[in-house]
Amino acid sequence: GAVVSQHPSRVICKSGTSVKIECRSLDFQATTMFWYRQFPKQSLMLMATSNEGSKATYEQGVEKDKFLINHASLTLSTLTVTSAHPEDSSFYICSARGSSGGAYEQYFGPGTRLTVT
Amino acid sequence: AQKVTQAQTEISVVEKEDVTLDCVYETRDTTYYLFWYKQPPSGELVFLIRRNSFDEQNEISGRYSWNFQKSTSSFNFTITASQVVDSAVYFCALSERNQGGKLIFGQGTELSVKP
Description:
The complex is a heterodimer of chains A (117) and B (115).
Chain A: E1 4-7, E2 10-13, E3 19-25, E4 30-38, E5 44-51, E6 57-58, E7 67-73, E8 76-81, E9 90-98, E10 106-108, E11 112-116
Parallel strand pairs in A: 2-11
Antiparallel strand pairs in A: 1-3, 3-8, 4-5, 4-9, 5-6, 7-8, 9-10, 9-11
Chain B: E1 3-5, E2 10-14, E3 19-21, E4 24-26, E5 32-39, E6 46-52, E7 59-61, E8 64-69, E9 74-79, E10 88-96, E11 104-105, E12 109-114
Parallel strand pairs in B: 2-12
Antiparallel strand pairs in B: 1-4, 3-9, 5-6, 5-10, 7-8, 8-9, 10-11, 10-12
C-alpha cells in the first residue's frame, strides 16, 4: 500500500517556541492531506484539511493562527505549532488521500509525539 | 450530524476467547464508508477494513470478522480466538461521501488480551 511518513517522530520543545511537523506521501501524489490530534487515552480529532495549493480548512475550535498548515506540493504538507504551550502536547497524525479520488483511499502517517515543557 | 459511538471503553479477555467490539454510527448521507483501525502502543494506525454503505455483506479475514447492519446502524468487529498481540485500541470511523474524505472516529475501545 501507499506510504506516508512524518518527521519528526518525537519532539520536545520549550513553551513559546514553534515546531514544524512534516507529512510526506512517499509513493503517490496526495491532493488532500488531513491533520488529526490525539490526546492521551482519547480519540483522533480532525484539526484541518489541506488541499494542495490552497488554504487549509480548519475544524471548528481549531485556531488557524496557532496551527499553520502549508500544503505546497503534492507530496508534502507541514503543520507548524506556533508559540507552543504545554496544553499543545499531543500526538499529531497526518493522513493523505490520493488524486484518484475515493473516500477510502486515505493513508496514515506514523504520527508525531509533541511534548511542550 | 455524523457521529460514531463505541460504547465499550475497555474490554479485557483471556487468550483464545472470542470478543466483539461494538460500533454504532449516525449519518444523514446515503453514501458513506465505515472503517476499523487498530492502534497498538506504538501509536501508528493500522487499517483493518473499509465498507461502503451499499455493501452489507459480512466479511471474514482470518480471525477477524465484521458484521454490518444498516437497519441498526452498526458495524461490529469480532476477533475469534484472541491472542495477546491483538491487545490494542480499536477505532471505528465514518466518512461521508460529501465530506471530502474526512474521517469521524469513535472514542475507541481498548482491548486487553491476557495470556
